[in-house]
Design brief:
By secondary structure, chain A is mostly helical. Chain A is built from twelve helices and no strands. In chain A, α4 crosses α6. The longest helix of chain A has 27 residues. The radius of gyration of chain A is 20 Å and the shape is globular. Chain B has three domains: 89 residues, Phosphorylase Kinase, domain 1 (2-Layer Sandwich), CATH 3.30.200; 184 residues, Transferase(Phosphotransferase) domain 1 (Transferase(Phosphotransferase), domain 1); 56 residues, no CATH class. Helices cover 36% and strands 11% of the residues of chain B. In chain B, α10 crosses α11 and α13 crosses α17. The longest helix of chain B has 20 residues. The chains are: A mainly alpha, B alpha+beta. The interface between A and B is large, with 50 and 50 residues.
Chain lengths: 249, 437
């Protein structure tokens, strides 16, 4: 059983009341060298670098410089002693990360870059090309860098949750089903259900049960992903609301 | 320039490109919110470690739900490698000294049921301070959740109700009344088959549907809409026909997406469907138990007629009910009767030709208002739906076509109801119940 499955099992036993989250592990470790905390922070950073990158780009930073800054920032962050200097008040990883980045950019980026001139440090494997491709299709509206950051954070959270769900179906050899369920996750017409059910040789009601189940699984995974970035899993609902708002109207 | 696409659900402009198959990120994020506010338990929820220790034969897999009086886990019976639902019931035995006895009696009765559309009870008992039931686990969704994915087609609704009828008839034949039929208690497994859960649990837990307990929790308030009038007004007289009423409410909701509250339209006005379904639904929703379908099986018989026929043969049970004399009439009837009577008297004094009208309007023959209705040909003749059911249309339609079906007794001849399940014992007094009359 994988670690994620074990976590999932524990969460389900507690009715979705996630007990330990990645961010809480990082925070609990504090200044101590803890391999699990380092790993937890690393996973979080790997997951959420794009919102930071898009924030910098929206501020007008050029692509190459944004990539450098992101790498430099994570290099500092993953160095535990430096992390301790950051504002580590209890709270959400999302808020912490943006505050820390702003701090880094305004105070230390120039010094760091001067020191490291001549070689880009590689802390995380940032696919800058893909990030640029993604940034290019973001609508060029009046969105502030902060809005851009939050919106992309929301999108990444959902992508990660969706990937977990897809993985479940892949592992149980039900990808054919998943591919037909995915478009029904948010909206579907009666006739769509009937057609898709027929394609799978399922009865219509059974297909609707499957739609309910994939939505439920997505909900669980999304809440789990959100919980990972919180100190207190009791704040899931609030963070969810913020991310929902961040998607605009 | 191409107009930006809007989400058909929330109406918000869709992003030009997304990583998802589901195109609207907002709607997708919305899935993250809880389906419904979890009900806060009115008891101290046992620690999971304690539950695991108490039931060593079970592998506890998942917390399925917490209700007002109990908690349900999805578990696996290690020896049999069988998935089960473990229901722990919290009872203040000091407040309900009869509980232990009633629990055993009811659980035994439930365990004796064996029907593909009723979740079975495998084991029950008391251990370590818990009263528990180990039941068949249904891997799927409840009917409310399936409805929330976008509603059921008429064909699906008919199939659901038909299967409910089978299960209810079986249980009623065995002297067991469900008393809490509602979409949350109707589960659909992965194969799309319906199963009724929590048979008789309302009685076992002493959750008499009194006004006192109804105002206590949101859940009970939700249940209210599915309850037969007599469950509220005359709880001591509740019998299996209360389940038939609740089935009618569920059927109406499946067909229309709404509850039959206040002045509601016949289902066929809310969507394209066979007009005869109106009659079936309304007959199940009769206020007076005596005027409803008397057996769940009769509902199924009528559904089969609609399903199997292309023409318009009559519905046996609904027709029979239409011909049967009625003991009591709804308010609409009396208003019509009194008006008709007065008008008749006036006309009687006025001219001879009016005498005939006065006779048809007389309250004594029980057909007030028929003159108006019979002038309109079927199927345009729509009864006063707020009065639930109007026999005049059915009577007109049934003339000479269908033999009357005598309502059958609940139990087969010679069979006695299971001890303790008699209708006059259906409601156990609870602290919230009104004093026994």
């Amino acid at each position: 059983m994988s670690e994620s499955e074990i976590n999932h099992r524990i969460d389900r036993l507690h009715g979705g009341q996630f007990r330990t989250t990645r961010w809480s592990v990082v925070q609990a470790a504090g200044r101590n060298d803890s391999p699990s905390a380092a790993e937890a922070l690393s996973v979080l950073c790997e997951s959420y670098w794009y919102p930071l990158y898009s924030y910098l780009r929206r501020r007008g930073t050029k692509a190459e410089e944004a990539a450098d800054l992101t790498q430099g920032f994570f290099a500092r962050l993953l160095d535990k002693h430096d992390l301790a200097d950051a504002d580590r008040e209890k709270g959400r990883f999302r808020a912490f990360l943006l505050t820390a980045l702003k701090h880094y950019v305004s105070n230390e980026a120039d010094r760091e870059r001067a020191e490291k001139r001549g070689g880009r440090q590689t802390i995380l494997s940032l696919d800058v090309e893909a990030a640029e491709g993604r940034f290019a299709i973001e609508p060029a509206d009046e969105r502030t860098p902060e809005d851009e950051f939050s919106r992309n954070w929301a999108m990444i959270t959902m992508e990660r949750a969706m990937e977990r769900v897809r993985e479940d179906y892949r592992r149980s050899n039900r990808m054919e089903l998943f591919e037909r369920l995915a478009p029904c996750m948010t909206h579907a017409q009666e006739t769509t259900y009937r057609t898709l059910a027929e394609e799978l040789d399922m009865n219509e009601t059974a297909f609707k049960v499957a739609v309910h189940r994939v939505r439920k699984r997505f909900r669980e995974c999304l809440r789990r992903e959100i919980a990972e970035t919180l100190t207190d899993a009791g704040e899931i609902e609030e963070e969810l609301r913020d991310l929902f708002e961040a998607l605009g109207s | 320039m191409k107009k930006p696409a809007l989400c058909p659900r929330c109406g918000v402009q869709l992003p030009t490109a997304t990583e998802f198959d589901s195109p609207c990120p907002r709607c997708l994020m919305q899935l993250g919110f809880e389906e419904s506010k979890p009900q806060s338990p009115q008891f101290e929820v046992p620690k999971i470690e304690e539950v695991i220790k108490t039931f060593p034969q079970l592998e506890i897999l998942e917390l399925v739900g917490t209700g007002g009086m109990g908690i349900v886990y999805h578990a696996r019976q290690k020896g049999l490698d069988r998935d089960v639902a473990l229901k722990l019931v919290s009872v203040d035995v000091t407040a309900d000294p009869a509980f232990a006895e009633r629990f055993s009696r009811e659980a035994r009765a439930l365990a004796s049921l064996s029907h593909p559309a009723i979740t079975g009870v495998f084991d029950f008992g008391q251990v370590g301070g818990f009263y528990y039931l180990i039941m068949e686990y249904v891997d799927g969704a409840n009917l409310r959740q399936v409805m929330n994915t976008g509603g059921l087609s008429t064909r699906e609704a008919m199939a659901m109700v038909s299967r409910m009828c089978d299960a209810l008839q079986y249980a009623h034949d065995n002297g067991i009344v469900h008393r809490d039929i509602k979409p949350e208690n109707l589960l659909i497994n992965r194969a799309g088959e319906l199963k009724i859960i929590d048979f008789g649990l309302a009685k076992m837990l002493g959750q008499a549907p009194t006004v006192g307990s109804l105002t206590r929790t949101d859940q009970a308030m939700g249940t209210w809409h599915y309850m037969a009038p007599e469950q509220v007004e005359r709880p001591l007289e509740v019998d299996h026909r209360a389940d038939i009423f609740s089935l009618g409410v569920v059927f109406y909701e499946l067909l229309t997406g709404e509850l039959p509250i206040g002045r509601f339209s016949p289902p066929s006005q809310r969507g394209e469907m066979d007009i005869r379904l109106d009659k079936i639904v309304m007959h199940a929703l009769e206020k007076e138990p005596a005027e409803r379908y008397q057996r769940a099986g009769q509902v199924k018989t009528d559904l089969d007629i609609v399903k199997d026929s292309r023409g318009a043969p009559q519905l046996a049970s609904a027709m029979a009910a239409a011909r049967a004399p009625k003991k009591e009439r709804g308010a609409g009837f009396w208003i019509f009767s009194v008006l008709g009577g007065c008008l008749g008297l006036l006309l009687l004094f006025g001219c001879l030709g009016a005498m005939l009208f006065a006779v048809t309007g007389s309250p004594s023959d029980g057909r007030a208002g028929q003159a108006e209705v019979t002038e309109t040909p079927e199927p345009a003749a729509v009864p006063q739906w707020g009065d639930r059911y109007d026999e005049s249309i059915l009577e007109e339609a049934s003339q000479g076509l269908v033999p009357a079906e005598t309502p059958e007794p609940l139990l087969p001849p010679g069979e006695q109801p299971i001890e303790g399940i008699e209708t006059n014992e259906l409601i156990e007094p609870t602290p919230d119940s009104p004093p026994l009359r």
